[in-house]
User: Which sequence fits this backbone?
């Protein structure tokens, strides 16, 4: 592999500051629910040019991921793949919160609850095809809290 | 999905500082070992109101996750699920460190070695049911190092 | 588990600053491609003693992981394991970008696109056996962008 520094390579001299908020997202049921726009709007309102955004999901049966924001079929394939890896039909010791609860914990571990995205030139450094998704793993509708933390200047 | 800003939404003006430490955790063998209390104690001792905590596991056969801190059965189900996804019985090219070594690497990749958790109002922004776990994937007892880094004010 | 504070435990008083860059890595095809050296060189050039490095992969069919940097066989075993968990032979709704595309998205979700590593005493806090890898999940050679963000002093 070769590597090259990007022309925008920069050391940033402005004094650093931080900001944080909690987004409350209402999920209609299982699936990947995009909230890139809500995230980018809050980040833009902080008026920083460069920094680091961290997202944290405060739940153990929902999670976060970054995935393709174009082809809608990708999300369905992801949900069905997670169902195959962590099926409701398996025998779990923890089954008193419903057959979808333990699989939801497993899917949450696989996908993860924290994500960090740099901010460059006032924009999140997401690639062209990347969107930010809340992964709801329970059958029922839920209200989910995502904490955003931004440090930068 | 709808979203709403949390009332505690805030830009923090105090000058930022950082702190770091290394926790050494003794694991008795395979399983998820909680160290939320040790982490929260160190964070509290830094006297910050808001910021970002990052945990980093310095190993390739152990890892970190955030999971349910209530029902004990959840942890057993997670261990058995990881055993099914990365079984010792599979044929691995790398087998000279014992049959549990290569599965341990695979489980470490699936769960991950870094985690970031915002600090809000002097408290880690963990949800009610979230605990921080060191996942030991080897059979033998180990001494594991977790680096904590905190930036905030 | 017991825990002990590391002797290097420290609160760092110097004013914080940040730096960022984008590495462009050319991958020859599927597999785990190490770029620890390129990352460490850029970090060293920023002249910080302590801080937090975050790496972010700007793609949805490639990803990041930290794994064993010694035994070469480990990487082959990881690739074959990912192929078993997300096989090309499965039936996917999203198949118009080739049979390796949807499996690549799934492998990217499993391994993740962001990683954070503390900086201690001027060095990344990687363990002895840890290397930083770009995971290429597509069959063809690609040019991949990894954004690095460093905050510290």
Assistant:
């Amino acid at each position: 592999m070769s590597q090259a520094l990007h022309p925008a390579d920069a050391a940033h001299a402005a004094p650093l500051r931080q900001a944080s908020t909690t987004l409350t997202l209402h999920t209609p049921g299982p699936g990947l629910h995009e909230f890139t726009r809500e995230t980018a709007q809050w980040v833009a309102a902080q008026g920083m040019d460069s920094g680091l955004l961290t997202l944290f999901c405060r739940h153990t049966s929902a999670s976060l991921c970054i995935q393709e924001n174009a082809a809608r079929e990708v999300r369905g394939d992801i949900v069905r793949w997670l169902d195959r890896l962590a099926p409701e039909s398996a025998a779990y010791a923890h089954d008193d919160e419903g057959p979808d609860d333990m699989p939801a914990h497993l899917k949450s571990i696989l996908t993860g609850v924290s994500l960090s995205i740099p901010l460059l030139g006032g924009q999140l450094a997401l690639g062209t095809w990347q969107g930010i998704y809340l992964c709801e793993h329970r059958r029922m509708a839920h209200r989910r809290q995502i904490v955003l933390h931004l440090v930068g200047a």
In short: The first strand of chain B starts at residue 10 and ends at 12. Chain B has one domain: 18-152. The longest helix of chain B spans residues 73-85. The two ends of chain B are 33 Å apart (CA to CA).
